[in-house]
Design brief:
5 helices; mainly alpha
Amino acid sequence: MAAIDGGLLLAAVEFSRRAWVPGRDLHGADVSFEGLVGFNPWMPPALLVIAGWLLTLRMLGYYDSDRTPTAIRSAGVLSQSLVYVLGLIMAAEFFQPDQYFSRSLLLWFVASGFVVLGGVRWVVMRLGNRIPLPVTQ
């Protein structure tokens, strides 16, 4: 499941690249997917952030069905991981004081990553009947 989540987060990088509108000083900048994956002037390396996110999810028990038996608990763990990922991004900015990352690009990436991870997890749980259907009368 972690490999699938890694692929989903890479898709979130591509989505955020397409949705992002560079500021005035970067208008017309050619931002490629390959450029965002490695070291770049717009955000911390996406592979580093994705690896940190997946490691955080693993440590918080996101992939352990006993620790996240319901969609609500999975969403709680995913929300906790979001805090750690934002801390990782702030640490990356701290260690590169002369570099200013695009906050809007990071916001697009974190938001789309959160939505895609949570959405796919919900669908998988729904298909696996771990989320009961509502009772109709």
